[in-house]
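User: My instructor asked us to take a sequence, write out its structure as tokens, and then describe one feature of it. I'm not sure where to start. Here is the sequence I was given:
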Amino acid sequence: MWTSFAHIADYCFVLARTDATAQRHKGISFLLVDMKLPGVRVEPIRQITGESDFNEVFFEDVKVPLDALVGEENGGWRLAMAAASFERGTYFIPRQVRFTQEIEALKQLAASVIDEDTGASKLSDPHLRRDIARLAVDSHVLKLKTFRALTNALRGGPPGPEGSATKLHWSESHQKLMVLASEVLGERALAGAEPNGADREAAGWTRDYLWTRAETILAGTSEVQRNILAEQMLKLPKG
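Assistant: Let's start with the prediction itself. The structure tokens for your sequence are:
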């Protein structure tokens, strides 16, 4: 469930239980599965944006060759967690750049929208300017975090749990940005829900707003990220 781009992928990785007697994360192997194997069926999931980036993948009596095993048998959970750490550690480097660009685009949008009550642009609203300033601070903090992650990667260091802080910060800040954009658009945000409509500017912002609803879920929910930070960085007890 929720397999990204499975409908166009040549391979996918599967965490399969290969030792039924092992407990929890032990006894799981990491397999690289050919999507063209008999018994593999993909069903795209239509998203709120109207697109289908995610899929359900069904395996019906699929036989996987021995050379599909990545790493050691029953050692798949460690590989999966390492892959997730890399995703959280370096994935957000280009996202931070895009985030900064979107803040500038939001300022331009607000400057172009006239408030019917005051006759002034929305950008003159001190509350909106305050919220945009807070987003700019978030962007700078994210830049420093991604620089740290990039420096660590260039030095050959493994990604650590601090990637969860970057992911958490980015996803929640990005949601705030798109909420602000929707407030600036007003009724245009509703009209922009139609991607082929006349208001292409509103459509772009609305699509991004809808997409950000998933960002605190993908690559691990915000709750999961907070647990990782609490347990691995702050050394707090589980539970």
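For the description part of your assignment, you could build on this observation: The beta strands are 3-4, 11-17, 28-34, 40-45, 54-59, 69-70. Try explaining in your own words what that tells you about the chain.
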